[in-house]
Amino acid sequence: MTTFPVRRLGSTGLVPDVFPPDLENVSALSGGVNVRFANGRVSRGPVYRSVADLPHEPGHLLAIPMTSVGYEEVVSVSHDYGQFLRLNGQAFEDLTPPGHLGGDSTQTVTSSFLGGVAYVNRESHAPMCKRSSDNTFIQLPGWPEADRCVALRPYRDQMVALGVTKAGAYIPTMVRWSDFAYFGEAPASWDPTDTTKSAGENMLNEMMHPLVDGLTLRDNFILYCTSSTWMMSYVGGNDIYVFRKLFDDRGMINANCAVQVGGMHYVFDRNDIYVHDGASDRSICDGRTKDFIFRSLNFAKANLCFVQHDAKLSEVRFSYVADDPYSGFRGATTGCNRQAVYNYSNDTWTFYDVPNIVSCTRAALLSGSDWEDDQATSWSDAGGLWMTTEGDEDQHALLAARSDPTLGLSQARIYGQELINGGRLKLDIAPETIRPAMVERTGIDLDAYGKRLTQHVNVQAIWPQLRLDRWQDCSFQFGAANVVSSEPEWGPEFQIDPTSETRIDLNEAGKYVSWRFHCRGQQDFDLHSFDIQLLVRGRR
């Protein structure tokens, strides 16, 4: 009879790409969902708190920092690009331009902010902006009315348009930049022929792939195509900008699919997820999660992909539509149901179920409402939003999600995504978004402990080191298999109350041992490690 320890369960994160018996570390985890890892522990991933019910199906979410209006503006753009609504407390204010008409499209909306002005763009319409003095969004001044662009982004003190449609002709490799913009004003000119201005354009003939998006990286601007990456650098003089190729085989799967963290870009490509500093690049998922992600990714819905950064949790989250074995919102078609999550502080991967989300932003939820504005709202009904208007300037991760009754999602909403414990967004968890947290390791061969592959083992007991908020629907499950390529035969689930119980008695036998931990309730947990008692039996 042997007792062996399994320690620091959260040290490796999830490694679904490696054949489980080939995982040398017995603590390595072969699968899981809705969990995260810190300090060698496994704990529950973020949950979704209801910030506001949306009166339309969203397509994009943006936050405009506090300007002369005196409060932050969180704006939801409808999926058909026909309505722009600003959240103020629990009410919505219409920022839609007069006479504006939307239309269904799979084109991606981009938004950005420069010098006190917010910009929004979709390829179907001329770019729009909103200055602090504007009551609604307006068409971008100085922009040729009939022209269009794929994405609109800031660089230095200018705006840059990518993938331009000029005089009715789509030029997928054209870069156009504006004149310099003064604070509080949109750039006055986009005319490259006006020698008194700094506007210009360049059609990059050597570029073989269409432009998708762009993002500043330190002093440069990175241009992302579908299958290559370029750099735009300021040099001044008559040329103003120069362009050079960075990577031949790296690109971007969709607009809004890169974020800057610590002088690096984390990028969602069509074939990989990679990080680069403008000179060298490397994959951060190859050999760990790459196959799992891209085998389940629905490329027909690549227009829904986006990336977000949560600095509080040191996480970069890559959102997409997936059909993987752990999916809690299987069958999503109008929004993302999966996030592949990379923690750059401890170099681990995990996966979250997400409730049909289409966009993200960060905001402190500081509104223009005060207590006198809404005497009909009781203190209890106001939830945590009044708390956030009284000095909580923390930035919260916000998600826009579409409704889908077939997935159990009854209402389009703005959600706050944060941990059950330690978060400062004091709002209710949306029950219909809760999906079980689970982590597992299959195919443990125990050869590092002297067991031969021909020998069977009998698992007799475990002693878990587990902390629960409360004892509610959390359980362990063990299984075993005799053939290395077979799925384990799982035994019954065993619940344990860690405040009064320390041991679970088992009786599972086979050559390859497997275990799972489930948590189906609305509670947090910390699973550190456990000891397993087993008996090595004869060969068969």
Give the topology, please.
Elements: E1 2-6, E2 31-33, E3 35-38, E4 41-44, E5 47-53, E6 58-64, E7 73-78, E8 84-88, E9 91-94, E10 110-114, E11 117-121, E12 128-131, E13 138-139, E14 148-155, E15 158-166, E16 169-177, E17 200-203, E18 211-217, E19 220-225, E20 229-236, E21 240-247, E22 258-261, E23 264-268, E24 273-276, E25 281-283, H1 290-296, E26 306-310, E27 315-320, E28 336-343, E29 348-363, H2 385-388, E30 396-401, E31 413-418, E32 437-444, E33 455-468, E34 474-481, E35 489-495, E36 504-510, E37 512-519, E38 525-539
Describe the structure.
The chain has 540 residues and is mainly beta. Helix content is 2%, strand content 46%. It has two domains: 2-32 and 436-539, Jelly Rolls, CATH 2.60.120; 48-433, Methylamine Dehydrogenase, Chain H (7 Propeller), CATH 2.130.10. It has two helices and 38 strands. The strands form eight sheets. The protein has a seven-stranded antiparallel sheet with strand order 5-31-30-29-28-27-26, with no helix packed on it. Strands 1, 3, 4, 33, 36 and 38 form a six-stranded antiparallel sheet that branches. The protein has a five-stranded antiparallel sheet with strand order 2-32-37-34-35, with no helix packed on it. The protein is elongated. The chain starts with a strand and ends with a strand.
